[in-house]
Amino acid sequence: MQSTTHHRAGKGLRTRLGRHGAAAGLPASEAPAPGFTPIDAYIRRQMKDARIPGLALGIVHDGYLVHLRGFGRADDSGRAFTPQTPFFIGSNSKSFTALAVMQLAEAGKVDLDAPVQRCIPWFRVADPEASAQITVRHLLNQTSGLTERAGRGATLAAGMHPLEPAVRALATTGLSRPPGAAFEYSNLNYTTLGLVVEMAAGEPFDAYLKRHIFEPLNMHHTYTAIEDARRGGLASGYRYWFGFPVASGTAPHGSTVPTGGIISTAEDMSR
Fold it and tell me: Measuring CA to CA, how many Å separate 24 from each of 9, 54, 167, 270?
């Protein structure tokens, strides 16, 4: 959008949700904005050097959306990549999962320092004693003791399926250290948090996100189902072969929605 007319994006998730999507305000232009020409030129140079087919950029400054633009193509048909083009946001999905947990904590439905078993009574890892010690905060902070390696294997096996089977499978999963002892990034923490949200809220995780986060923020082009995203113009994924991007018809990685399965746009992510 033109730099003389700013799009209010809010100064925090609490503020933005409280205003029920005040960030949605004026539509942003995709034309070059004065003052951002050097940034656009830098993006184009980097895309050329790295052979990136397409991307979209949103810049938020001091709570205002000041620049929003697409570059390149969304797929091999040559369709333009715009700020409204959906794409997988990967582990940025975890921020939405954490927000959902914190909303429920503020509502008194989740105690961050209570054992996970308070929300999921059957929750188990291979160590029975540790199973009763892992708290919701441990999951949020990636300090449960679950490993990065186990998280990669589990999410690839789980795919975009219901969360309960993935969490039940933890019953045979060992920990690398006692709960709370140290940080280790693991997708398993956020897969479990997704089920915590479901159990505490009494509704499916994707339905909770839509009703309590996406809709209040007017994130109308954000999805948890790949079929819906395809109808909305999902960008093609690409894999590099000998340094050149080749279109891939599959999701970028196996994942559960809470860990990496959300699909969004640059415009929605700038709200």
Answer: 8, 24, 36, 10
